[in-house]
Amino acid sequence: MSTFKIEKPDESLRPAIQAKIDNLNKPKGSLGRLEELAMQICLIQQTLEPSLQYPCHLLLGGDHGIEREGVSVSPREVTWQQMINFTRGGGGVNMFCRQHGFKLRIVDVGVDYDLSHVPGIINRKIARGTKNFLYEPAMSEAEFDQAIQVGVDLVDDCIAEGCKVLSIGEMGIGNTSPSSIWMSLFGDIPLKDCIGAGAGLNNDGIRHKYEVLKKAIVNYQSKLSPLTSHLSPLIYFGGFEMITAIGAMLRAAECHLIILVDGFIMTACALAAIQLYPDAQDYMIFTHCGDESGHRMMLDIVDAKPLLSLGLRLGEGTGALCAYPIVDSAVRMMNEMNNFDNANITKYF
């Protein structure tokens, strides 16, 4: 795996940032969470005048072998069908990217369909879906490394265009299953508390999903030994779109980008990235607590305070895009709001 040099933002600028926030013409602390966001963003960018130039959204597509076990109500062909739909501007992610001025990159990293001929889809396919982790690792170490590198390269492409804020979404039927397993293993949480309806399973479907994933974990643990300690849960259970997202998050943190973290699947990827590089969390803004069972619990693992709770469970990064105006407001507060001296207003706190 590639190595990353991720450091906590330099804290020496904090007193100056706080002084500027406190001297804006408002009661001290009266803009609440916006003030916290402004502090985080200023520290990330090491400036008193932050900016959100050229926001980019990565939409990563990949299929999962575990889908063959009936753990999702949606069939895998929905993945490629939606990927094509995105190129025509017809998805939720398209609408929100248009609304908020994000450049959308639609990337095939592991869809079980030939999309190479479809204009508007970036072809970075590693394989046509992962293997079924009920019986074997989802991917090889070489495929894992390749997925990480794809994430790095995609972020470098965004940075080359001047990007300072990145959001990531996914399209992959079955990807709540590896997310639930990562949540259980990394958060030391009982698996049953980590499993929800995904795309719309009923109670019987959720019970079946639990039994399948429980057996997959048992099979994985039976393969662990001193000789196979390299068999990471990331390799064994992950999806290509999820590992690519981890690589993108780590590269974005390394380059001091603002990372907008979406719902259940992307929070699982953020959790994995933080397991690898704890300081990466300082660059993440957790934007939304979704409707998937256990998402709030997973956010609690990293002590994250999401900006929104709208009941979304679409994926695609839509929660991150919906939250963007709040982030924008925090930046505008720092750059456009007057201070007491310039406004000739007596401080009233």
Written description of the protein model:
The chain is of the alpha/beta class and 349 residues long. Helices cover 46% and strands 9% of the residues. It is built from 13 helices and 6 strands. Strands 3-2-1-4-5-6 form a 6-stranded parallel sheet, with helices on both faces. Strand 5, helix 10 and strand 6 (284-286) form a beta-alpha-beta unit. Helix 2 packs across helix 12 and helix 10 runs parallel beside helix 11. The longest helix is centred in the middle third of the chain and has 21 residues, at 203-223. The radius of gyration is 21 Å and the shape is globular. The chain starts with 13 loop residues before the first helix and ends in a 6-residue tail after the last helix.
Record keyword descriptors for this entry:
single chain, 349 residues, alpha/beta, six-stranded parallel β-sheet, 13 helices
Q: What are the segments in which pLDDT stays under 50 over at least 5 consecutive residues? A: none
Oligomeric state of the chains present here = single chain
Please give the radius of gyration in angstroms: 21 Å
Strand order of the largest sheet: 3-2-1-4-5-6
The gross shape turns out to be globular
Helix content: 40-55%
| First and last CA, distance | 52 Å
User: Percent of residues in beta strands?
Assistant: 5-15%
Topology pattern, helix = H, strand = E: HHEHHEEHEHHHHEHEHHH
The total count of helices amounts to 13
Structural class: alpha/beta
For the biggest sheet, the summary is:
6 strands, parallel
